[in-house]
Write a structure and sequence with these properties.
The structure is a single chain. The protein is α+β, with helices and mostly antiparallel strands and 114 residues long. It has one domain. The protein contains 3 helices and 7 strands, in the order ββαββαββαβ. The strands form 2 sheets. It has a 5-stranded antiparallel sheet, sandwiched between helices. The two termini are 23 Å apart.
Length: 114
């Protein structure tokens, strides 16, 4: 079941989510404007739709994978089909803009409590 995280989630919860779904990672979609994320979807597109239904704007949503067992510096992978956005200059599955990557890292890292 997809959850919208608006404040914090414990690292232990993320590890449990990974174990119960994909093993080593948790798929997430981050809203960089509203500073929240959706997790636990089978696909980033499912999480994206939940956030759109909740009032997010598509241009603010970025798909990532969180690896809760890795050190914080390596925990986020910027890879999702929803990131392909020629209209925003993002031509690959990765988040190409370094400033958006940094914003995502700041949001996600502030939401995960050790």
């Amino acid at each position: 079941m997809i959850r919208i995280i608006k404040s914090t989630i414990s690292l232990t919860e993320l590890k449990e989510s990974a174990k119960n779904s994909l093993g080593s990672l948790v798929k997430a979609v981050v809203d960089i404007e509203r500073k929240l994320m959706a997790i636990e979807g089978a696909m980033h597109a499912d999480e994206e739709q939940i956030l759109l239904d909740d009032g997010s704007k598509q241009q603010d949503l970025w798909g990532i994978n969180i690896y809760p067992d890795l050190p914080i510096a390596n925990r986020i992978q910027f890879d999702s089909m929803i990131n392909i956005r020629p209209s925003q200059g993002n031509l690959s599955r990765s988040v190409e803009d370094a400033s958006i990557q940094k914003e995502i890292q700041t949001i996600v890292n502030s939401m995960i409590t050790e």
